[in-house]
Amino acid sequence: MAGGFVDGDLGKRAAQYEGGVTAYFILACAVGSLGGSLFGYDLGVSGGVTSMDDFLKHFFPKVYERKQAHLNETDYCKYDNQVLTLFTSSLYFAGLLSTFGASYVTRKYGRRISIMTGAVSFFLGGGVNAAAVNMFMLILGRILLGIGIGFGNQAVPLYLSEISPPKIRGRVNQLFQLTTCLGIIVADIINYFTEKLHPWGWRLSLGLATVPATLMFVGGIFLPETPNSLVEQGRLEEARIILEKVRGTKKVDAEFEDLKDASEAARKVKHPFRNLLKPKNRPQLIIGALGIPAFQQLSGMNSILFYSPVIFQSLGFGSGASLYSSIITSSMLVLGALVSMSLVDRLGRRFFFIEAGVQMIICMAIVATVLATSFGHGVELPKGLALLLVISICLFVVAYGWAWGPLGWLVPSEIFPLETRSAGQSLVVCVNLFFTAAIAQCFLASLCHLRWGVFVLFASLIVIMSLFIFFLLPETKQVPIEEMSQLWRKHWFWKNIVCQDDDDDDK
C-alpha cells in the first residue's frame, strides 16, 4: 500500500494487518488484470499479421514481392522494411507519450478511470485497423491502440499492487503478465486460422482487439477503486468501506492509518516527477523507472514475440508452420508466468531474475552458434537444427516468462512510495514503451545487417542486466510497501545515497 516513510510505527502497524482473500478481492483482480490482455493481444497479433500475404499485398507490396522472390531461400533480410516496422512500433511511440496524460488521470481521478479510458481507446483503435483501406487509417488505428496501452499499462500494475495483501502481492501483480501471455497465445491461435481466410483474414485478426477492450470497459464499471487512490482523493469513508470489503474484515485500522499517513505525505509533494530526483528516491528511479523497464526490452524477448512468425519464416519454415511455431513459443510464455505466480513469493524476485538470466544467455548463445555455422547460405536449415532453434527459443521464452516478463512490472510497482507512485509508474511505462518501440523499429534491420550477431548482442545485454540485478536490487518478497524504504537504508550501495536526505533535514 503506502510507502516511503521512516517512522518506526510503520513496521508495528504492518505486523497488525488483518484480512485475507475474499470473493470481492478476486473479482477486482480478475477484472483489473484484463488490462494485460490488451497488451498481449497486440504483441501477438502484430507479428502474425505482418507475415500474412494478403496484408502485405494490400499495404506493403514491395515486401510481398521480395518475400515471393525468396520462397525457396532462407534470407535474413526478407522483411527489412522500415515502414512495415513502423506499423508495429507506432503503437508504442503513442503509448509512451500517452502515459504522461495517464499519470495525471490516475493520480487525480483514480486507477479505475485510467483503466476504462485505456479500454475505450483500444476499442477504437481495433475498429479503425480492421476497417483500414490506406496507410493513414492503419497508423491512426495503431496510435489509438497505443494510447489505450499507455493508460492500461500505467494503471493496471498499480491497481493490482495496491489492492493486494503484502504476502501475495507478487502473485497477484503477476496476473498482469499472465493475461498478457494469454492475450499473446490467443492472438497467435487466431492468426493461425485467419491466415487461411483470404483476402480478409488479417482484418478479423486486427478487429478482434475490440473484444478484450470491451470486456475491460464493462468490467471496469463494476471495478472498485483502490483504497489508496480513494484516500489520496480525500474520500476516506468510501476508502475504508472498500478496504473492509477487499480484506473481508472490519479490523483494518492499522492498514487504514498507514494509508492516511501515506496520503498526507503525498499531498505535500506538489511536483511528483521532480520529487523522483531526490536522493531518497534514487534507488526507485534507477532500478524501477529506468533500469528494469529498459532491460526488459533489451533482453530481445519482445523482438521474438513481435516477429516470431517472421523469424521462423525467414529461417525456412513455411507460413503456416511459422505461425504454428509462434503458438508453441507463446505457450511457453504462459507456462513461465504460471510458474512465477506459484513460486515468486516463496523463492523471491532475485532468484528468478538471476536464474533466468543464466538460462537466457545459454539459449541465445545456442541460437547464435547454429545460425553462424549453418544458416544464411541460400539453403534451408536441416530439420534437426531447426528443431534445436525452436527448443532454444522456447527455453529462452519460458525463462523470460517467469522472470523479466512479470517481474519487470511487479518490482517497479511495489517499490515506489505513494507520493511518487503514479509519476514513477508513468516513467516506467514510458521507458518500457520507448525501448519496445526502438527494438521493434530496429530489429528486422539489425537481423538483416548483423545476422546471427544480433543474438550475440542480446546475450551480452542479458549478462549486463543480470549483474545489475545481482548488485543493486535487494529482495522485496513479502515486504509491505510501507516498509520498502527500509530496504534501501540497509543496502550496501543505496544506504549512502538515500541517507543524504536525512543529513540535509538535520542541518
TrEMBL record:
GO-annotated cellular components: plasma membrane
Subcellular localization, as worded in the UniProt entry: Membrane
Domain of life assignment: Eukaryota
Pfam families in the cross-refs: Sugar_tr (PF00083)
Gene Ontology MF, one: symporter activity
Transmembrane segments: 21-41, 83-106, 113-133, 172-194, 200-223, 285-311, 323-344, 351-372, 384-405, 426-446, 452-473
Keywords of this entry: Membrane, Sugar transport, Symport, Transmembrane, Transmembrane helix, Transport
Bilayer topology annotation: Multi-pass membrane protein
Protein name: Major facilitator superfamily (MFS) profile domain-containing protein
Family: Belongs to the major facilitator superfamily. Sugar transporter (TC 2.A.1.1) family.
